[in-house]
Amino acid sequence: MKHHLLVAVLALALVAVAGAQTGGADAGPPSLSIRAAVWGQVRNPGLYHLHGSPDLLELLSAAGGPTDNADLSRVLLVRERDGTRRRLNVTAIAGRPVFLVPGDVVMVPASFWSRLRQELPLISTIAVLANVVLTVTLVAQR
User: Fold this and answer.
1) Of 27, 44, 74, 106, which cross-links 64 as Cys (Cβ 3.0–4.6 Å)?
2) Considering the entire predicted model, what is its pTM?
3) Are 128 and 112 in contact (CB under 8 A)?
């Protein structure tokens, strides 16, 4: 009798395993995996699959962390499921995790100073051209 019970339990376990592998109706609970994307000023932007109940800091860590140009006080979290947008100051959320849900998109913007450094060559060129035009205009008036 014990032998038949053991065989029945093993058979049920094999059916459950086969169903889980094929995605059958008896596959059991889905694995806790969340797909979220992070873009902008992180070392490795892209789509990430995180397990468990990941939070925003875990996603940023998975992406290699922020770059030196990141503005962590203006991180944008977009929820795909309802389209809500939430501006977050990551430097101020310590101890209060922001948990992610499937489909979340996180955008880490560049800081003001970083954007200014990027645009500095253009600003300098415009200033030089304006100086040349002003100088030519003043010389022509004399």
Assistant:
1) 44
2) 0.66
3) no
